[in-house]
Specification:
Number of strands: 12
Shape: globular
Number of helices: 13
Structural class: alpha/beta
CATH class of the largest domain: Alpha Beta
CATH superfamily of the largest domain: Response regulator
Helix content: 40-55%
Radius of gyration: 27 Å
Strand content: 5-15%
Largest sheet: 6 strands, parallel
Number of domains: 3
Order of helices and strands: HHHEHEHEHEEHEHEHEHEHEHEEH
Distance between the termini: 61 Å
Length: about 375
């Protein structure tokens, strides 16, 4: 049987199958009448694009572009992080992966486990020398990343800051910052502390003092407390980058300062440690208040149980999804779509609104790896 005869036979069999298909089993998007008409005409009319269009498929003629975008290289974006294994960044990594799936991009997650700036700079330089198509970096130091950022930009590699940014005047030339307005969020936390506590000793725990992803928060809290004029004595205490070590230091600090009126924190691990210490010694029953940042499961559970007053959601998923999206648009537009500063927001999570976080397990909060459509209630 020659090739043309074979094709005609296969099309006849396909036409019979389509014609006999019950209406309820016709695939969404298929124009059955048009499809049968094309097959019936035969000859040149039977083209693959025409058949695909009638079947509800086809679309972009390039075959590998995403959506209606043209075909592009599979760009690889490198994310340089300061605490690569910290549970806070689980939803961030899901956000990156989900954006990759949409835009047909790839990524590498690298940096330091312990906020070691030297390791992060080294990872950034490796990304530059390996020809990364874009770099996203947590700018936790005001000056250390200036040289590699300039080196990357000079090589045509766009650089976006996420989660942590340098202060104005630092000299860093990154194209945009995507994350929470850290100082303002700290001010909001300070205002909440003032609402809860009229006077007395208050402690603010911070994993790594000076690190630009969290220091602006504690500075903002101090400023708000000072501006209130209330007689609150705020003390800053370092806890370290290791979650288990943070808990031990927080517990020990409380043991030595039982006259405290409040215990607060500006990072995820320290906030969880505050919540656990509040529960261990039933501190709310002693009139002690507590709060902090981020959505670790233990933190959310202990808010629901009444041991912690609040935590602040900064939407870590978006801190991965948005940078990849902006880098893709920058690349596909030849740089015309410049990355833009994006505030991922601030929401106080309290006992009044914590339930949805506990009853819905999603990639967006890092509580599940499953892809799912979450219907609002």
């Amino acid at each position: 049987m020659d090739q043309q005869k074979y094709l005609e036979t296969q099309l006849d069999e396909f036409a019979t199958l389509v014609e006999d298909l019950p209406e309820k089993e016709v695939p969404s998007g298929m124009d059955r009448r048009k499809l049968l008409s094309i097959i019936g005409m035969g000859g040149a009319a039977v083209s693959m694009p025409a058949l695909l269009a009638a079947c509800g498929g086809g679309g972009n003629s390039s075959g590998s572009g995403v959506g209606d975008y043209p075909e592009t290289p599979k760009w690889k974006f490198v994310y340089v992080n300061h605490v690569t294994t910290n549970p806070f960044f689980v939803p961030t990594q899901y956000g990156i992966s989900d954006a990759d799936a949409i835009f047909n991009t790839d990524h590498q997650w690298t940096g330091s486990e312990t906020s070691d700036v030297g390791q992060m700079v080294s990872a950034m330089n490796t990304a530059i020398s390996s020809g990364a198509d874009g770099i996203c970096v947590c700018l936790i130091d005001a000056k250390a990343f200036n040289a590699p950022t300039k080196k990357a930009l000079d090589a045509g590699i766009p650089v976006i800051a996420y989660n942590a940014d340098v202060p104005p005047g630092s000299g860093n030339e990154r194209l945009a910052y995507i994350g929470q307005d850290l100082f303002v969020s700290g001010q909001k936390m300070g205002e909440k502390i003032v609402e809860l506590i009229p006077s007395g000793d208050v402690v603010g725990f911070i994993a790594t003092p000076g690190s630009l992803n969290i220091q602006p928060r504690i500075d903002g809290a101090k400023q708000a407390i000072k501006d209130s004029g209330k007689p609150i004595n705020f003390t800053e205490v370092a806890t370290g980058a290791d979650t288990s070590g943070e808990l031990a230091k927080i517990d020990a600090y409380y043991q030595g300062h039982k006259d405290l009126k409040g215990m607060f924190a500006v990072d995820a691990g320290s906030t969880q440690g505050v919540a656990q210490t509040m529960q261990k010694y039933n501190l709310p029953s002693k009139g002690i208040h507590g709060g902090g940042y981020d959505l670790l499961p233990t933190t959310l559970n202990l808010i629901d149980k009444g041991f912690l007053d609040f935590t602040i959601d900064q939407q870590p998923y978006l801190q991965g999804f948005y940078p990849t999206t902006q880098l893709f648009l920058y690349k596909i537009s030849g740089g015309l779509m410049a990355p833009s500063d994006t505030n991922t927001g601030l929401l106080f999570v309290t006992k009044d609104n914590v339930k949805p976080y506990l009853t819905t397990k999603t990639r967006y909060e890092g509580s599940s790896s499953s892809q799912q459509y979450v219907k609002s209630t």
